[in-house]
Amino acid sequence: MAQLWGGRFEKETDELVYAFNASISFDKKLYKQDIAGSKVHARMLAKQGIITAEDEKAIQLGLDSILDDIEYGNIEITDEYEDIHSFVEANLTERIGEAGKKLHTGRSRNDQVALDMRMYTRDKVLETRGLIIQLLGTLDDLMEKHIETYMPGFTHLQKAQPVTLAHHLGAYFEMFKRDYQRLYDIFDRMNFCPLGAGALAGTTYPLDRKYTAKALGFYGPTLNSMDSVSDRDYLIEYLAAASTIMMHLSRFCEEIIIWNSNEYRYIEIDDAFSTGSSIMPQKKNPDIAELIRGKTGRVYGALMSLLTTMKGIPLAYNKDMQEDKELVFDAMDTVNGCLVLFNGMIKSIKFNKDIMAASAMNGFTNATDAADYLVGRGVPFRDAHGIIGRLVLYCIDKKCSLDELSLDELREISPKFDEGVYDAISLKTCVKRRLTMGAPGRRAMEEEILSCREFLKKAKEAENEINSFFNE
């Protein structure tokens, strides 16, 4: 058992206690971040005259060789070591001797793991942001293609008013746009470097924390050493944002599942994103949509777990905080994997335009427009509402739609109807006349799509800017 802290102890740790305490099984994911942080820390120690240039050179070469061996599979990170920090330091010392023991000068595992986790999370935030931009691009393309693809809009899962597929997809564009903005804010808040905070109270060595922060791509160092090692807000914020992303994906998947059903038939999911039944040969199941919907609870669970872990922890670091990793790692992989799969699925879906339009007509979605038509002919709205309600009852009994009624049938209910009613309640007119900002009318949708494109352009510029920042 490789431990960094055995000097004060006379007995070996019980094997069960060691296994319970160890984190190597999951924090080995952080090997790149641990080595990168160690390389910069060593460079800073040499710059400040805390270690010699010769020792620093040996440390750099040793760390590079460990990284290469891990990447090429020449060395395995095993549970012989307590954590990733023990693994790196033990292997370094084995390779370069006494100089390896100097690497940890002015540093604690507390600020070391805080650094590793911030760097890892920072990468995942940027990865999630990039995947959301890709999904927004797909939605924007679909919106442009379906400005005149008519469908019913729903409230209470009941057909309400006619809209377009572009308008419906635009609602999800707004949701995922907010998701991107949340991740953007999270990055700006979290991108400060805890390295140099020590165990909780800094160090007596003359460390240059601004140097290490800049070298590792942070905006600057964290400002309070106790908060530096005990802060997990950035993880909670990421999980909250990830939970909201999953909620949006789940809502969308729920609609895809409904639209894919035999009763709706609005869409056909591509074979690549469907599965069949082992017993029923006719089945084509929306398994990917169902799995994304199901995995949402998994991400929610990670958020609630970390909130519960952190709620009673006094300052500063406590071992409870080791519980920040396994579920967070799983949630990160889950949300990013779901974004990739969902984007591929929505890109390849076939929309059955005729069925969607017929569904809008058969659900009396033009009833409000029929009432508005009567208002335009001098009928008070409340009276017009009642007249159309009677017509809807008549149509239900006759099993037809409003536009299928003859003019004589309409005039039996109200003499205010004339031939103009048929144009007024056509799907195209119902949608076209809705021109207020954010409505489904063509002109309003074209303006919305332009706004979406402008957002995407700025988001891509922001990603390029942050990539340039890291490459400086």
What topology emerges from the helices and strands here?
Elements: H1 15-21, H2 24-27, H3 31-47, H4 53-71, H5 84-96, H6 109-145, E1 150-155, E2 158-164, H7 165-190, H8 209-215, H9 225-230, H10 233-259, E3 267-268, H11 287-310, H12 326-348, E4 350-351, H13 353-362, H14 367-376, H15 381-398, H16 407-413, H17 420-424, H18 427-432, H19 442-471
Antiparallel strand pairs: 1-2, 3-4
Structural class: mainly alpha
Which CATH-level-2 architecture of the largest domain? Answer: Up-down Bundle
The H-and-E topology, N to C, reads as: HHHHHHEEHHHHEHHEHHHHHHH
Strand content: under 5%
CATH topology of the largest domain: Fumarase C, Chain A, domain 2
- SS element count, helices: 19
Kindly give the count of domains: 3
**Number of E-state strands:** 4
**Which term fits the overall shape?**
elongated
Straight-line distance between termini: 40 Å
Protein model, in words:
- With 472 residues, this protein is mainly α.
- The chain folds into 3 domains: 100 residues, Orthogonal Bundle (Fumarase C, Chain B, domain 1); 212 residues, Fumarase/aspartase (Central domain) (Fumarase C, Chain A, domain 2), CATH 1.20.200; 59 residues, Ribonucleotide Reductase Protein R1, domain 1 (Orthogonal Bundle).
- 63% of the residues lie in helices and 4% in strands.
- The strands form 2 sheets. The chain has a two-stranded antiparallel ribbon. Strands 3-4 form a two-stranded antiparallel sheet.
